[in-house]
Amino acid sequence: MSGEESTASGAVAGTAAGPLAGVAAQPGVPKPDAILVADGVTRSFGGLRAVDVAHLEVQRGAITALIGPNGAGKTTLFNLLTGFDRPDSGEWSFDGRSLAGRRAHQVARSGMVRTFQLTKALSRMTVLDNMRLGAMGQAGESFWRGLIPPLWAGQEKENTARAMDLLRRFKLDAKCHEYAGSLSGGQRKLLEMARALMAQPTMVMLDEPMAGVNPALTQSLLGHVKELREEGMTVLFVEHDMDMVHDISDWVVVMGQGRVIAEGTPDSVMADPEVIDAYLGKHHDDVATDSSEGDS
Ligand SMILES: Nc1ncnc2c1ncn2[C@@H]1O[C@H](COP(=O)(O)OP(=O)(O)O)[C@@H](O)[C@H]1O
Ligand SMILES: [Mg+2]
Question: Which SMART domains does the UniProt record give (predicted)?
Fold first, then answer.
């Protein structure tokens, strides 16, 4: 590590602080210290090109928000980059290592861990057991069922201690012996984030971590995300609430119809007419007064 802890957390409205200062607000723009670099990543479902990302770089140690209307391809991009789905084409590297073709647990082992838009806490396991699973990275439930006993041997004490530390931090320690299925939606989101941290990642990708979380928990979730950055982690998260995006992001990437259509500081992106358009969607046909006729 560089010892220099100058994260971009001092970001002032309008200008990117720290390492992202001076980076142009352009789709695909290079970053001074990119931890994740993707090229030509595409994925179609039938005739629909869900993801078509020509070039994308994510800055190390920063919080980057990935925004865009429903169906823009955000979750599919997460799935591709983390090995939960296969692209039709494309290359990407994480921390200098190519990850294309890697499976989810290999991706997790390399330090990039994600959470899901729909939480995947295993509801008929206790909160603590969910955490212990997180220590081994990510894979499907059936994969774990076969592997848990041998992998736990020897490491159980350490993992349990680490799990309890994280559960305390996320205020879930009192629930450690309850089934994950008994938690509220918001608590499950917290559990998922805590579980992701069990793998000791360098980068976490959070797919709508605040969705369905009540306002009281939202604040603590936001605080946790900021803490991750303070600890030197890289965060890429999907969020619809622009106030939250504005509050915690150093950089914002906007997707529309599978492509990266804009990126920049929260302020520059939110003032971008193309971004506003993407969110307004087709409604602009109804309200536009200055556009030329019928080209879309
Ligand atoms: N497994 C799938 N099969 C068919 N279409 C899919 C599948 N996953 C996603 N899509 C489609 O791909 C597009 C992008 O979806 P998604 O990545 O979930 O968008 P977002 O997360 O930005 O809302 C949508 O049109 C969606 O319906
Ligand atoms: Mg999604």
Answer: AAA (SM00382)
